[in-house]
Amino acid sequence: MKICSLCGKEVDIDKYFSRKSACPKCGGDLYICLNCRFYSETSHNKCIEPKSEFQRSRDKANFCDYFTFKESASSSTGREKEDVMKNLNDLFKK
């Protein structure tokens, strides 16, 4: 499952996905660093791909040759997160 990092909605990517592709829900660009599997907030240039060029804007379409849309975990639902947080809170209440 692929998720738009700008609106958080699921998007369907087909074989015609390109730099100009936009999210059908919010209209934002999809070919952006924030949607890439190499994006890392803590890495140098915010990218773990060492050969990639610096991208000034992370939320606008770019020409990076290494872009690969990241896969989102479909198993982590909001309900599961609530359960985990409840268990953690219960653990530390003692």
Strand order in the largest sheet: 1-2
Q: What kind of sheet is the major sheet?
A: 2 strands, antiparallel
The ordered H/E elements are: EEH
Uncertain runs are none
Average of the residue pLDDT scores = 87
Structural class: mainly alpha
Description:
Helices cover 16% and strands 4% of the residues. The chain has one helix spanning 78-92, and strands spanning 2-3, 10-11. The chain has a two-stranded antiparallel ribbon. The radius of gyration is 16 Å and the shape is globular. The termini are far apart. The model has no long low-confidence stretch (mean pLDDT 87).
Give the helix/strand layout.
Layout: E1 2-3, E2 10-11, H1 78-92
Antiparallel strand pairs: 1-2
Question: Care to give the gist of this entry?
Answer:
The chain has 94 residues and is mostly helical.
Question: Can you tag this structure with a few keywords?
Answer:
two-stranded antiparallel sheet; 94 residues; 16% helix; globular; mainly alpha
